[in-house]
Amino acid sequence: MQPAYIEILGFSAAVLTTLCWLPQAAQTIRTRDTRAISLWTQAMFATGIGLWLIYGLLIASWPLIGANAVSLALVLVILTMKLRHG
Questions:
Q1: What is the pLDDT of residues 10-58, one digit of tens each?
Q2: Per-residue pLDDT at 3
Q3: CA 33 – CA 38 distance, rounded (Å)
């Protein structure tokens, strides 16, 4: 079992890297403007987050699971908007 400060560090990193996607997702949903977003970059990023999520599940790391599940949901919203609205 890891010391508590290591888990706190992991959860802190997870919260910060996950919350950074909220403004982008909100703006994309609100404006439907996806011209400046690269389809390939978003697709590769979503794939990478999906792989991190699977890895987190395999090692039972709650910071990885939580952060990547929420991040994947937000990035998939942006990716869906990009596919629908170009």
A1: 889 888 888 888 898 899 889 999 998 899 999 999 999 999 999 999 9
A2: 84
A3: 12
Quote the number of domains for the chain: 1
Q: Report CA-CA distances (Å) from 73 to 6, 27, 85.
A: 26, 15, 18
> Would you say 52 and 64 are in contact if contact means Cβ atoms under 8 Å apart?
yes
The enclosing domain of 43 has a CATH number of 1.20.1280.290
Q: For the whole prediction, is pTM greater than 0.85?
A: no
Lookup result for tokens 């937000």: 74
Cα–Cα distance measured from residue 84 to residue 67, given in angstroms and rounded to the nearest whole number: 26
Q: Domain range spanning residue 22?
A: 4-85
Residue 42 Ramachandran class (φ > 0 left, ψ -120 to 50 alpha, else beta): alpha
